[in-house]
Please model this.
Amino acid sequence: MGKLVDPYGREIDYLRVSVIDRCNLKCFYCVPDVGSCSPDVSEVMSLEEIIKIIKAAASLGIKKVRLTGGEPLVRKDIVEMVSKISEIEGITDISLTTNGVMLNELAPALVKAGLNRVNISLDSMNPANFKKITRGGALKKTQRGIKAALKAGLTPVKINVVAMKGINDGEIEEFVKLTLDNDLHVRFIEYMPISKSHQKQWGECFMPISEIQELCEKIGPLEEEQTYRGNGPAAYYRIQGAKGLVGFISPVSRHFCGKCNRLRVTADGKIKPCLFSMDEIDLKEAGGDEEKLKELFMRSLDLRPDPHQVDRNPESRFNCSKREMQQIGG
Ligand code: SAM
Ligand code: SF4
Model:
């Protein structure tokens, strides 16, 4: 069986696996309607199932794996999972996206198990605002998690900030200042109306990257940083002399589907060939058989949409997912 190259020539070497759809926070932009997000709906994959899926994907050329959720650190077997993934032939990079709440206790063990990098979501540095956005979270825990990640050597630690009008736009300059003395990549992300339940609040809070960038430039001119221009969606800049970088991810206002190098697997074992599409392929059909898993991965390539069509018609990109972000993993 060949490598993962889709009909439009996009090579796929990156797999994002949502390892759980539950979370210890409830960010309003991720779970707009708490009632709709029943914790019992999905059959979360077992550790064994996840490892089999990643092994099959690695034999088709997947090199990088990101564990996400829900909140991946609430899984009791997360350290063992990282350790088992690090033993899979062909996997050269293991990363994790987390809200950082449990990172203080887990960072050293995760590094020992083979974790290479971490992205931490932090949308406010004001305790009251953090609590409001996350519907009850404690800022201190995430801040401790960031410190623990830096201490454990997971550098550069990437901080993901969903920038939103009237919510945290007044803190953008403060976030940029964090990069001056710290080896942090602060990445601003546009709010995506990922499902129908977002429509009203998205209309009120959405901020295009151009506006976010203008606010960042109040701290100083941003110099483009070519070193980090990979296949990822972020464009990186540095304030002159700063230790860290400022990144911009613009899924709504600027297209990047033409460079998309990733596939996603949901916590209940479905391949999502494109974040913005309804299509899914159920990996549980394979019954754990490696050859069948590989066939399903190859089949998912045909469901990858034409990047030009997706890019040209941003309207069609959104409000089309039957899952909320918490169930997909970002
Ligand atoms: N719980 C982990 C966390 O918060 O980092 C991992 C899962 S979370 C779904 C992954 C990423 O998706 C986070 O950086 C979060 O900010 C982002 N995200 C969630 N909903 C979003 C939305 N509607 N628009 C843009 N980004 C979103
Ligand atoms: Fe949980 Fe992450 Fe979604 Fe916030 S963004 S509710 S921390 S999954």
Summary: The pocket of iron/sulfur cluster (ligand 2) is lined by residues 23, 25-27, 30-31, 69-71, 99, 121, 325-326 (CB under 6 Å).
